[in-house]
Design a protein that fits this description.
Length: 185
């Protein structure tokens, strides 16, 4: 169901976040993430005027992961920033992502390593979407592998969202083996 019709309004700002996942020839995966903020109007920043339509932020983050979702490499770039010469010097700090697992407390470790003055607020915010983006990237292969092997392994996605709760109707329909029988009192 779409959103309701909005009240009369005027666009002032667009934040776009994209993540593209690439299977590499060497068996690893690259997740290329980008966050871009664009104002529709000219703004005055402490560092000078930024014309409307030009990015205030255009930040990129690439992490390379293995099949176990362990980060094997990371790099960042800051192509448009509000404070040139300052914001765009933090990219090397994102090497601290190497060694982290996207599946094991990634957001907690991210915060420990790169929150506040240890990183760029926007790049660190962007990194937070990487675990779910990686899961989506692997989803079709995981489904194929699960079906091919008739795996006894419980599907990862169960009990991770409202629709796929093990005591709910979607799991009963699509994953009957893993459905919990609800006992009414």
């Amino acid at each position: 169901m779409p959103l309701s019709s909005p009240a009369p309004r005027k666009l002032r700002h667009t934040r776009a976040i994209t993540v593209e996942a690439y299977a590499r020839d060497d068996g690893l995966w690259d997740l290329d993430a980008c966050i871009r903020d664009i104002k529709t109007h000219d703004i005055e920043l402490p560092s000078g005027q930024r014309p409307g339509g030009l990015p205030v932020h255009d930040l990129k983050l690439r992490v390379t992961i293995d099949r176990d979702m362990l980060v094997t490499d990371a790099e960042a770039s800051s192509d448009a920033v509000p404070y040139p010469g300052y914001c765009d010097t933090i990219a090397p700090a994102y090497k601290k992502l190497i060694g982290l697992s996207l599946m094991k407390h990634f957001r907690l470790h991210l915060k420990d390593r790169l929150s506040g003055v240890l990183g760029c607020t926007h790049l660190t915010e962007l990194a937070q979407v990487l675990p779910t983006a990686a899961i989506q990237a692997f989803a079709d292969e995981a489904m194929e592998n699960r079906e091919a092997a008739q795996s006894a392994e419980r599907p990862y996605e169960l009990d991770r969202c409202h629709a796929l709760r093990t005591d709910g109707p979607a799991v009963a329909k699509y994953y009957p083996r893993w459905a919990l029988k609800v006992v009414s009192g």
